[in-house]
Specification:
Helix content is about 35%, strand content about 15%. It is α+β, with helices and mostly antiparallel strands and about 260 residues long. Strands 2-1-5-3-4 form a five-stranded mixed beta sheet. Strands 6-7 form a two-stranded antiparallel sheet. It binds iron/sulfur cluster and FE2/S2 (inorganic) cluster (FES).
């Protein structure tokens, strides 16, 4: 008797296809067969693309790099949820065992005015780079790495800075927010640097400049819905947005301007 499980899953994919930024896009249906539950979601898309190339069609453009949940390049809205169904999981670490044979899966790009579509599922996230360039750094020369105990940092501050530093800049927080706010991303960067001694001298100016750049890029305001925290693959929490607001208010009161 034929063993159906050894043939893998058959899936229907509804994928956003858009050949160029200024061309109208649409959802296109594809079928893939023999998908192993052990494949990652991106490997499943690789299978589809091999199929499309062999039939002379344009492969689906999507971003990825490390495929280890580190770089922040991957980003797909799967069945309406950025990075797919699993919490704390970037889409490159999502596996097909979380889907069933016969499923229909919708796959769309991040949708936000500040993240314009480049092609198909790829979007331009350089707005995040410009926010970092506006203030998400330490400009003083801190020299070589000091001896570990010469600059004591309280354990709770080191932990808070490290937790925020795990933000990979993927943009899922923006993609899920009805305001397309980048507050969780910006808050993570501000909170990380505000907790470290090297970040203190510029903390007020940093917050004012980064928030001004966030506004200039077209991201919306935060209205405390919390969707960003719910989809963040790195578990960045809303306390980072509270820090952002505190640091920004402090900067404005001190008279800093963008
Ligand atoms: S806060 Fe989370 S969702 Fe937003 S960019 Fe950072 S890692 Fe991605
Ligand atoms: S490809 Fe690097 S985090 Fe997903």
């Amino acid at each position: 008797m034929e063993d159906n499980t050894s043939r893998g899953m058959r899936l229907t994919l509804l994928i956003w296809r858009q050949p160029a930024p200024d061309v109208r896009g649409k959802m296109v249906e594809y079928t893939v067969d023999a998908i192993s539950p052990e494949m990652s979601f991106l490997e499943m898309l690789d299978v589809l693309n091999e199929q499309l190339i062999l039939s002379g069609e344009d492969p689906v453009a999507f971003d990825s790099d490390c495929r280890e949940g580190i770089c922040g390049m991957c980003g797909l809205v799967i069945n309406g949820r950025p990075h797919g169904p699993n919490r704390f999981t970037a889409v490159c670490q999502l596996h097909m065992r979380f889907f069933n044979d016969g499923d229909t899966i919708t796959i769309e790009p991040w949708r936000a005015r500040a993240f314009p579509i480049v092609k198909d599922l790829t979007v331009d996230r350089s707005a995040f780079d410009r926010i970092i360039a506006a203030g998400g750094y330490i400009s003083s020369n801190v020299g070589a790495a000091p001896e570990a105990n010469s600059l004591p940092v309280p354990k709770q501050d080191a932990d808070a800075a490290m937790d925020s530093a795990t933000c990979i800049g993927c943009g899922a927080c923006v993609a899920t927010c009805k305001n397309a706010s980048a507050s969780l991303f910006v808050g993570a960067k501000i909170n990380q640097l505000a907790h470290l001694p090297q970040g203190h001298p510029e903390r007020a100016r940093r917050a004012v400049r980064m928030v001004a750049q966030m506004d200039a890029e077209g991201f919306g305001s935060c209205s405390n819905e919390g969707e960003c925290e719910a989809v963040c693959p790195k578990g960045i929490n809303l306390l980072n947005i509270a820090t952002l607001r505190r640091e920004y208010t402090r900067g404005v009161r001190m008279g800093f301007k963008p």
